[in-house]
Amino acid sequence: MEQRRFKPRRARGYLVGCVVAVFLWSVASAQSRYSISEEVNEGIVVGNIAKDLGLDKSKLKERKYRIVSSNVDPLFHVNQNDGVLYVSRKIDREEVCAQSSTCLINLKTVLENPLEVHYVEVEVLDINDHSPTFPEKDKTLEISESVLPGARFQLKPSRDRDSGHYSVQQYKLSHNDHFRLEVKDKGDDGKIPILVVQKSLDRETAGSHSLVLTALDGGKPPKSGTMNILVNVLDINDNAPVFTKDVYSVMLDENAPVGTTVVQVNATDLDEGPNGDVIYSFSNSMNQNILNIFDINSLTGEITVTGVIDYEEKERYEIEIEASDRGLAPLTTEKSVIIKIVDVNDNAPEIEVTSFSSSIPEDSRPGTTVALISVNDLDSGLNGKVICAVNEDAPFTLSPTLKDKMYSLVTRSPLDREKQPQYELTITAKDAGQPPLLSEKTISVVVSDVNDNSPEFSLSPYTFYVTEANDPGVSLFSVKAFDRDENNNAIISYHIMRDGSDDNKVSTFLNINSETGDILALKSFDFETLKTFKFQVVATDSGTPSLSNNVTVNVFILDQNDNAPVILYPVSS
Question: What is the model's pTM?
Answer without folding.
Answer: 0.48
